[in-house]
Protein: VanZ family protein
Organism: Limosilactobacillus alvi
Amino acid sequence: MGLKWFPLIIVMIILLSCYGHVFRQTNRKFWQNVTVYSCLVYLLVLCWLVFTPVGPQMPDSYKSLMYFHGVPYNLRPLQNIDPEFVANIFMTFPLGCYVYCWRPRLKSWNLLLIALTPGLIIESTQFISDLLVGNHRVADIDDVITNTLGVLIGYGIFWLLSKTPGERLLNYFRLEK
């Protein structure tokens, strides 16, 4: 196994160890357990998608990238809207739904900070792992923006659903009532 896989393995170990306290809680109902375990599976798949090393050749980019010790990054937001832009929103949309199930009554600033965190963690970890082991990932401010939007949209849709008769169904999956 190559050194390029270590960031993925380390991130998954950190995720599983942070998730450990959630596993110890035993007073949840069946549908709440569905929320907890499906969230873990989602987060593991997300880690796989964003931290798996890519091939040795970086694709030609339509963005003007900058480099730090050979590591590409983009700090110029919204140069191009492409399918990857939309895919990143869909990638973190479920996370917003899970955040709502965990904390349905967040203040706007707290929600914004929580929504911003995944994109910052993903992109900074990709940058650092590329710097350390050469995973050929590009740290991109657009990804931070789209990941944040995805979380906000997911949370917003569940918040809107909670204002409809669908709230009864949603309550089964909530961890905080």
The chain has one domain: 3-55+63-173.
